[in-house]
Amino acid sequence: MTDGADLAVETRRSRRRRSRAAGTVLLIAAGLLTACGKGTSANALTWYINPDNGAQAHLAQKCSAASNGRYSISISTLPTEADAQREQLVRRLAAKDASIDIMSLDPPFTAEFANAGYLRTFSAQEAPDFTNGVLPAPVKTATWKGNLVAAPFWANTQLLWYRKSAVAAMGVDPNSPNFTWDQMIDAASKAKKTVEVQGNRYEGYAVLVNALVLSAGGQVLENNERGRDATVALNSPAGQRAAAVIQKLAASPAADPAIDTSKEEQARAGFQKDSGAFMVNWPYIWAAFDTAIKAGTVPANFKDDVGWARYPEVTPGQPSKPPLGGINLAISAFTKHPDFAVEAVRCLTSTDSQKANMLESGNPVARAAVYDDPLIIAKFPMAALIKQSIADGGLRAVTPYYGDVSTGIQRTWHPPGSVNPQKTPQESAKLIQDVFQNKRLL
User: Fold this and answer.
1) What is the reported pTM?
2) Angle of CA points 52, 54, 56, to nearest 5°
3) Average pLDDT of the chain?
4) Domains of the chain
């Protein structure tokens, strides 16, 4: 079966398992795609972006102006959920839709799109502009078969956030060496406080499982370059240890009662309650706390009680592998303006642009120098930890079939209360392997 045919099969599976998202993306005519800043240049580029607070639109305007009329960039906004973003882009690219010039692409989907021939590869001469000064882990997410197929833009990670007053009363220090999930769950349980995680059946939960497996010294997939013949490695001591952490949390008093449906914002809401003590989440929440303060949902001094630490260890003495997320900027293989698209991406991912994006959006970025900027440090006092966590971050499986991997994990590891260290890793490995071999459908 050819790569294109493989992707077509995967797309059909995606439609079946995400019918509601597919129905949403069909509402393009109803205004799903929101144009911004339409340019007048003959070399007009369209950048498909994930929703944000306007930071990417401002970068598009800035780079359009800086081009002195050589090109203009307008934006079209994709759906909120990563799965639905992928769905829409796959449909358009499969049809060789030339209206997509640049796209903000979730890193787990980069290999899939590149393998299908949907992305323009950066040449050996172009690549250094997008990798020099960039943290190594994000570069890996933008690389497929030794070629740079996207430019690292955002480079996200999760930290452990905690309430200073709560941990002081517990007598624990999340910044102490070898602070583990077990210690955190035990301390929170004893104090009748919560540990907030992303436990809903969606990509964020797959991120949690992946981070725990990697932190325990294992891998979700091995021999990724073999595609469907890759080895699903979840049924391992590391997979069992990861399952034990989830089982322990779900069964403990530290679990939020709504853990089964918790996403990032639900976790933040739980953390902001009087019962909140710990939370694993992305750094955007630091700015989100300001929003909550302005809305009056938390006290004006709430942030004074918030501390941060590295993602907890699974095994004492074995450094954790914090989740690695972000956004890569990719150029469509079907763009009519490839040279101008490269020029535009060069501007959009420059150090100055990434600094401006982080200051406005609150999302971390890929270029190392940004984290040493005084303005960044002033707004993000945890900048050094974010930088280190990205550098040490654990990638999700780099494979064209990541959708199968993620959905297989979500199906077998959810709800968290059903996880069993002896059964769940084995069941998930078997399901994903069978899907790879076309023995089962998701």
Assistant:
1) 0.88
2) 80
3) 91
4) 3-154+326-391 (3.40.190.10), 159-323+399-436 (3.40.190.10)
